[in-house]
Amino acid sequence: MIRKEIFIAVGLLLMGLFTAAQVTPVVTASKEKIFIGEPVKLRFELKAISKSASIQWKLPDSIPHFEYIAFDTTDVLKREITITSFDSGLWAIENIAAVIPSNVNGNEQVVTFPLKEILVEYDTTGNQLLNDVKPIIEVNGGELWIGLAVLAAAIISLILLIILFRKWKKRKAEAVVEESAKTALEDFLTTANRLKEEDWDTQLVQKKNFSELSFAVKRYYERRLHQPFSKLTTDELAMQLKPYVLNETLINIIQTLRLGDAVKFAKFAATKEECLQTLETMESAIKQSEKELKTDA
Question: Is pTM beyond 0.70 here?
Answer without folding.
Answer: no
